[in-house]
Amino acid sequence: MGIRVKVGSTVFVLMLLLLVSFALAKDGIRVALFPFVPRDGEKAYLGYLLRDLVKRELERYVEVHDVVLGDNLVRESQLSWDALLVPLTAQTLGRKMQCTHVLSGAFRFRVLGGRERLVVSPRLVRVQDGASLDIPSAVFEWGKLEDFAAYVLEHLGQELGISLASSLPLPVALEDLLPLYEGVVVMDEAIRKYGKNQYPDLPLWQKAFALARETIQKVPEYPEAYYYLACMYRVTRWWAKEIETWEEYLARLSDAYGTSTLPVAQAYFRLASFYLLEKRLDEALRYAERAAELAPSWAEAYLLWGKIWYERGNLEEAKSLFEKALSLSPDLREARYFAQLAEKARIFGKEAYEAYVQGYQSFALGNFHQAATYFAEATRWNPSMKEAYYWLGRALYEVGDLEGSRRAWEKLLELDPLHSQGRRFLERVRREQQHGREAVRAFEEGYRHYEEARYEEAVPYFSQAVSLSPSFSEAHEYLARCYYRMGRREAYLAEREKAAATLPHPEDRAWSYYEMGFELLGWGERDEAKRMLEKALQNNPSLGRAHLLLGDIYAEEKVWLKAFEHYREASRYTEEEEKGRALFGMALSLFSLSRYGDALPLLEEILRDYPYATFIEEAEALWIEALAREKRTEEARRAFEQFFLRFPQSPFLERAMFWCAFALYEGKRWHEVKPFLEAFLARYPQGEFTQKAVEMLGYTCRFLGLEDEAAKHFGRLGGEEGMFLVADSFYRKRDWNGAEKAFQEYLARYPQGKFADEAVLKLASVLFEAGKVEDAVGVIEERKESIRNRFPEDFLRLWARLSWKRKRWEEVASALRELKSRTGKLEKEYALLLALACERLGDEKSAREVLLEAGEDPDAILGRPTAKELQRVLEVMEKGLYEEALERLEALAGRNDLLPEERKQVLFLLGKVCYLLGRFEEARTHLEASLDAPWTLRQEALLYLVDIAYQGKAWNDVIQWASLLEEKQRRDFSIALRVAVAQYHLGNVRESVTILERLKGQGERDAEVRLFLLEGLSALEEYEVFLKEAKEFLSLYPEHPRGESVLVLSSQAAFASGKKQEAKAFVRMYLERFPQGPRRGELLRLLSRILLEEGNPEEAQRILENFRAQGVPSEDLCPLLYATGTLLLKEQRFAEAAPFFREVFSSKESEFFTRAGYWLGVCLEYLEEFEEAQRVYARVSGFPKEDEWVVKARERIAVLKEVQEPENRR
């Protein structure tokens, strides 16, 4: 242990001597005192005397910093004493000494009137903010200097927060003290002159010693003399004399202070410190314990006491004393440090820890050989001290002992396998052992440049490393990275492959190639990444991660089969989450290959074994999709319910929900899928599957028989498909007008669209139904062959019917025979048509065969004259010869050989012909009589009856006949519109509005529907809805002839609902669009009423001027003129109101004539124009039609006369 120096104890004692602080009466206040500065440069020693006089009194109240230590700090800072008078300098020193205040000052020595006097100017600086308190200068006689201290404290009392007691008397003569303070000045000179070479035999020190001893000889009871002399000995390192003097100082303190223990405790503290320095531990313990007894709240005493016990090896006692010091002063850093020191020495062993500390200090100073010796000694004292092994490894590394360094770090990692720094340094040593320190340092220098993105500067260092050690794979790798960053792609790839080639084991090479592939992929170099990954698998076919990454690459390239193969291999050679990723990749690949059934078991395995994987939500959504595509409807529904409960906010919820809907749709569970799809579209109105969901919802409504609703959904699809499906909805509703227009618009936009053939076929069918046979033929001829190939059976049926209408019996027969060969059997309708064609072609035999095959009686159809006559009637009607048809039907009706079915047909045809001729009463009679006809005739008869009742305004009959129609016919636009109008006229406005809201937006009669709807809403006083519909109508049909009445109703509705601004806007719109409209007067009256209610005459005038500028005549503006005058009158602005009333009054035809005249007279009275007022009142009273204003005018005339009569008499 002889090698260990006494660094710890020496440093510790010196720290205590420099940073000592004493426990005093006033907590939180600590004052630094400096010598007062002579203004004339003479008698500087008096400044020290003045300082000690103040100190002697001040330390009774607050803590005073050690004056000698303060003086030393000034010298070390190379400051002059008068610099302390500058507040900023004093504040800086005060902070260094941890004081709250700094007291200094200046003085002048004067001899006045034969008396020696001092003029003193003290200054106190507050350290916290640098504020200074200048105590007024005062003059003190030499013999009464003790009054000086009382004077200073009196002025400091409020700032320092102290209550003063009586001053202590000075027991000695001042002249006897002067040698001591002259010696203190000499000490200051010696310290500044000799610098570091302070020895007791130097002249200035000899002089200082002599002066201090002179005072001691004169006044041996003055303690401060011993204090300064002891400090002189300490500076000159005269230890024996210093300790002897401190003991003298201690004895004098006891005599001087009696029961005042603090100064005595301070002396004991100093003595204990120096005995500790001399390693006289028994004496040091005695004095330290005594200091703590005298000052039990003084933390530094316990700190010193603990240090002594530490030196004696009693670590528990030392730690207890350090903690006691820390409890007394929580901010005392030294106590915290030594408490931790004792604890660590207790843990590691005192000898081991001290060796460790000295090794660390040596390492910090760069003495690595000595540090290694200390750290090795620490490991011998404590073989399990891992910190010592760490620093031993560092020190041996610094001196180049790589093997020793390696063993130290290996031992460290045996003790602590998770020590990251040790592992890093061990790897570094092994690297240097493998490649050499020069190569490693070249690599590290290159790496430093690389990290700073200085790639060109890094390249030479990496090149040097690989030159020194060709097998240095990391150097190869980073050299390659530099080349990549510099854009030298070929060099980059070459270096990366060189790096991999240097690795001895195939598995390591494979991993290196994998990392290269991974990195290249991250840089977007997909092809090179694939090449590297393939090389990785050549070296190690079981490298699962390479398979996984290749699977990702091929999946991104949509090469699904290869992706699947690599994912499959990855699943064999990976575990846990990576295996889950591989299974998921397999499932995705199978999905993309449309092998949904094969994907199902993989997805189920993922859901079972990897419930917390990052991709679990997507996997579960795919599972639902696979179940749906495999038509496992119920399982898909249950899976979605589970998914929704687990992941209500999942980003894959849309997908899962759609495929659940798809499963229900494919399962034809229409009543379940409809609300489900509606909920889906409400949640995802613009989602990935929105278009498909809308289409499915449209078809669902179609399958449920809700064709109108289906059309709305198809309309949302937009594009070619949406346009076609909307047209198809019209077709299915048998709305031939709507269907014709919609199919024509579709074909105009998409003449070669994917639905073009079907659209042409259905358009031709519509035209046929509408009686436009030639148009139908012309449409279908353009695409005849294409349609015939795609829709052969539908084409043949339509072509047969078109040929029948055109009397082309051979084409009829040809088409129907081909249809029969395709289907095996003709429907009854087409069998009858084929029989007719054969009969017209003279082939009665074939006609009979066809009828027999169809289950009909040939004689009943071919042989009866009445049947043939009915056929001729139908032909006549088709030509539009209704009068001839009527004659033939009347003749037929009178025959007795008609079969019951024929009679019903005759009655129906009579009704139809009469209807077409406009003879509605006769038509109604015949049609009502035919209602027991077959279903198709009955439905057509009811259609005619509804229209006849509508034309005759027989509203109850309209509703009655419409109710007998089948639902599809009842929902027909024209029928529904008639029913709505009938309900309105019968007072069932709510029922009417409900129907009209459904019809809105359909067909060419949309404007008519909206007008009826507005009337209904107005009647129901549903003004909010009315205004919404009205705005929509005006936007859609700005030029509609009924727009005028809509604007009027809108103005009234807005006013009635309290929306006055909207009402005004509608009025202005009306007057702009219909300046000469017949209802402008009505609206101007409404506007005037609004303005009166709002009470804003300025706005009324502004509106009035706008109308004048538009050229509206004054007679039409009377309501506004009257309203403006009235508003001004309410504000008693009579002069402004009168012209408006006068303008109205000038129009005798105005309905406001009398009231305007009356108020004009009132204004004139207020304006004291009494004669004019009387004339106005007289004109009003002469109005032929008496009203309240005429009566009021007469009353005012009478009042004015009563007032004027006395005036006239005077």
TrEMBL record:
Instruction: Tell me which PROSITE patterns the record gives.
Output: TPR, TPR_REGION
Q: Does the keyword Protein transport apply?
A: no
Pfam families given in the database record: TPR_16 (PF13432), TPR_2 (PF07719), TPR_8 (PF13181)
Q: This protein's superkingdom? A: Bacteria
InterPro entries per UniProt = CellSynth/LPSAsmb/PSIAsmb, Sel1-like, TPR-like_helical_dom_sf, TPR_2, TPR_rpt
In the record for this protein, the TPR repeats are positioned at 265-298, 299-332, 386-419, 439-472, 510-543
Q: Which UniProt keywords apply?
A: Repeat, TPR repeat
Q: Which residues form the signal peptide?
A: none
Please name the PANTHER family in this protein's record: LIPOPOLYSACCHARIDE ASSEMBLY PROTEIN B, TPR REPEAT-CONTAINING PROTEIN PA4667
Name it. Tetratricopeptide repeat protein
Which organism is this protein's natural source? Candidatus Caldatribacterium saccharofermentans
